[in-house]
Amino acid sequence: MKIQEIHLASRPEGTPTTENFSLIDRERPKLEDGKVLVKNLWMSVDPYMRGRMTNTKSYIAPFEVGKVMEGGAIGEVIESRNAQFPVGMKVSTMQGWRSHFASDGNDLTPIPPTPLPLQSFLGIMGMPGMTAWSGLFYIADLQPTDTVFVSAASGAVGSVACQIAKIHGCTVIGSVGSDDKADLLKKMGIDAVINYKTAGNLSKALATVSPQGIDVYFDNVGGDHLEAALNNMNDFGRITACGMISNYNDSEPQPGPNNLLKIIAQKLTMQGFIVTDHWDHYPEFIQQMGQWISEGKIKWEETVYDGLDKAPDAFLGLFEGKNTGKMLVKL
Amino acid sequence: MKIQEIHLASRPEGTPTTENFSLIDRERPKLEDGKVLVKNLWMSVDPYMRGRMTNTKSYIAPFEVGKVMEGGAIGEVIESRNAQFPVGMKVSTMQGWRSHFASDGNDLTPIPPTPLPLQSFLGIMGMPGMTAWSGLFYIADLQPTDTVFVSAASGAVGSVACQIAKIHGCTVIGSVGSDDKADLLKKMGIDAVINYKTAGNLSKALATVSPQGIDVYFDNVGGDHLEAALNNMNDFGRITACGMISNYNDSEPQPGPNNLLKIIAQKLTMQGFIVTDHWDHYPEFIQQMGQWISEGKIKWEETVYDGLDKAPDAFLGLFEGKNTGKMLVKL
User: Fold this and answer.
1) Is B279 in CB contact (< 8 Å) with chain A?
2) Which of A234-238, B179-183, B245-249 has the lowest mean pLDDT?
3) B263 touches A at CB < 8 Å
């Protein structure tokens, strides 16, 4: 049995490269009484992990150089000295970026029997889906009459946010970085999609597809997207600040939008959130999302890289828009 | 009887000058039945008026070039052909920037009998006081345990916000542009005051006086003050976006703070507001503020320019920090 881990080799300055990661062979851990050995089947790479590669205080501790990275993963118990976690049990954990690990069970959440593919618990049924849902309902206070703008709209969070808003009765506009992604969203029923790479002035493009203005902006991008949204927000609009991927790789802090005065003039509310603060609503989310999926009301995409050694490439691909829907690594 | 008005002579590019205003002599209006003649005693100049000098869509219509300007004023009925508004009645109006005006009464709000000086209804008991109060309680949801940072803290709104927060039990930090203003605030009981002109790095200055972090930032300034506040906000902090005077005279839009990612990482809420949306709470405010004043719990300052012809100077002085407390013109 080959046991491997990906370690943070060095902290990136600006955009990370594969040099910042190292693939390490490990000894097979000895299983004491009460412990189990889990083999990871799927792992998640997410934009927020970029923040953890930097040694700054944030809502989550930074990764340590020379140590294994962390992240969402789905695994299977392959050896067990703990009756609560029998061999064959599928579990959700934060022990990604490694092939196997030993656990006393405290960090394992059993996945209930489900007709859904296991990896959906890293995407539509997991953190990204929960992020979209809680951001819309608990932060933006989504109303059926809202016109909603979602950036990075074909991503793991954005594509779910777009579809939930449509189910709720909203008019939905997405921005994406390719015509293929735009076509995909239109097939999902999204009302208008902007390819920001070819649209020219983003504020004007948004005004053209949404002359009625924007009531809710679900921000995954920041920067020019936030500026364009601000220029088109209606009075009392809400901005759900979920991510600012355009800034994650800045080696120096970059200036913000030049039109924050709109926050006052249009009496906007901009609220940042981290999904982990809303985890007490996860059972409600799982039930609602499971129902939407079973009714065929919501669809999802995956982009899969094969093998733990490809995890850095998968992660780096997030910042180049190489994913459609959830970016995953199959182990 | 000399009747005069101040007109908008031209729209400013960048910082306004006295050239943008003209003093015009007018004929005495004829009083039809049902009308009254009001002589203005006091008028207000406020930072928000800068926005109305520019011809852009906003929450309030722009001033028109070649026409009289508008703003808060306190006047006295000196002739009456309307029994509801007898001679001698004191009234609050939006008919500032002029010595006299005729009215059918629809734009007049009688000032009730009060031991307070009339001009306080343009300051502590009027729009600026109401702005501070509603911003703290209806936008920031002020809690006694909060550490509150107020910028432009010796201004008409800021000085009231500081004192209300102190009355509510908060720890309060203000920023001002002179040592005299800092001394004044300290005498009012404000816990710490930063002179931003001499403090050097504002983020560090704020961290020094408030190592416990900031829970509520009452923003009157924007720009570097907003950036410094963001660097010091505690988790779930609230930013009340009341004004951004540092940007009002920009001839070109200026970049915003470089650290908006803090809104996500610290899960902040930034909410813009315009006091007029909260006017239904004005009776409650008046009662509360009247009580605080009668108990000696709140104090206020005025800076008075004498004569309608000095109104442009008074207005321009707002952007140079020439006022302590409410900037007023005595007619």
Assistant:
1) no
2) B245-249
3) yes
Cβ–Cβ below 8 Å for A265 and B58: yes
Residue A112 clears pLDDT 90, i.e. is over it? no
Put simply, the answer to whether B255 touches A256 (Cβ < 8 Å) is yes
The C-alpha atoms of residue A158 and residue A170 are separated, in whole angstroms, by 15
Which of B260, B276, B292 lies at the terminal end of a domain, its last residue? B276
Residues B216, B102: one domain?
Answer: no
Chain B residues close to A241, C-beta within 8 Å: 260, 263-264
- Model confidence at B73, pLDDT cuts 50, 70, 90, reads very high
A176 and A55 inside one domain: no
Which of B270, B274, B275, B276 is most worth mutating to test chain A (most A CB atoms within 10 A of its CB)? B270
ipTM over the 0.90 cut-off: yes
Mean pLDDT of chain A: 96
Report pLDDT for B227: 98
Question: Is the same domain home to A166 and A249?
Answer: yes
**How far apart are alpha carbons A45 and A105 in whole angstroms?**
23
- Which residue of chain B has the CA closest to A48? B265
In this prediction, residue B251 carries a pLDDT of 84
User: What is the per-residue pLDDT for B4?
Assistant: 97
Mutation target vs A (from B240, B260, B267, B273; most A CBs, 10 A cutoff): B260
Regarding whether B113 and B237 lie in a shared domain, the answer is: no
CB–CB of A243 and B255 under 8 A?
no
- Residues A131, A94 share a domain: no
Domain limits for position A115: 3-123+301-330
Q: Return d(Cα B101, Cα B52) in angstroms, integer.
A: 21
Phi, psi (deg, nearest 5) at residue A68: -65, 145
Cβ pair B270:A270 closer than 8 A: yes
Domain identity same for A115 and A204: no
User: Could you report the per-residue pLDDT of A139-193, keeping only the tens digit for each?
Assistant: 999 999 999 999 999 999 999 999 999 999 999 999 999 999 999 999 999 999 9
Residue B166 lies in a domain: yes
Name the residue among B58, B226, B261 with its Cβ closest to that of A244. Answer: B261
pLDDT of A296: 95
Q: How far apart are CA B134 and CA B127, in angstroms?
A: 10
Q: CB–CB of B258 and A259 under 8 A?
A: no
What pLDDT is stored for residue A45 in this prediction?
A: 97
Contact A272, B264 (CB under 8 A): yes
Binding-face residues of A in 92-151 toward B, CB within 8 A: none
Can you tell me the mean pLDDT for B275-291? 96
B58 has a pLDDT exceeding 80: no
Residue B39 has pLDDT above 80, yes or no: yes
| A291 Cβ contact partners less than 8 Å away, ≥ 6 residues apart | none
Alpha-carbon gap, residue B101 to B142, rounded angstroms:
41
Please give the span between the terminal C-alpha atoms of chain B, in angstroms, as a whole number.
13
Chain A positions touching B226 (Cβ under 8 A) are 260
For residue B329, count CB atoms less than 10 angstroms from its CB and return exposed for 0-12, middle for 13-18, buried for 19 or more: buried
